[in-house]
Amino acid sequence: MIQVKVRPNESLEEALRRFRRKVRKSGLMQQIRRLGSYEKPSDERRRKERLARKRCRQAAAESTAGAPRHGL
User: Fold this and answer.
1) Tally of domains within the chain
2) Residue 21 forms part of a structural domain
């Protein structure tokens, strides 16, 4: 369960902003949406494969981020 304690001299809006940030980073809302309706096993497999490809592309982009790009 995600909890946010209001700090001294902190407005409610700031505490709510911290709470929303924690919820977003935890992936809780995505999980709730995913479990809210049935997903066929084939669709689940495709979604997981798509996420794996995305992670692989991001890792490759991060590893070559410092390298100079030729032809651009």
Assistant:
1) 1
2) yes
CA distances from 44 to 31, 34, 39, 41, 69 (A): 13, 10, 6, 5, 36
Residue 70 belongs to some domain of the structure: no
Determine the structural domain holding residue 36 and report its residue range.
12-62
The structure tokens listed for 37 are: 């309706």
Torsion of CA 37, 30, 50, 45, to 10 degrees: -40
pLDDT digit string (tens) for 38-56? 989 999 999 999 999 999 9
5 in any annotated domain: no
Taking residues 63-71, what's their average pLDDT?
A: 72
Angle between helices 12-26 and 28-36 (to 10 degrees): 60
**pTM given for the model:** 0.51
59: tokens are 């890792």
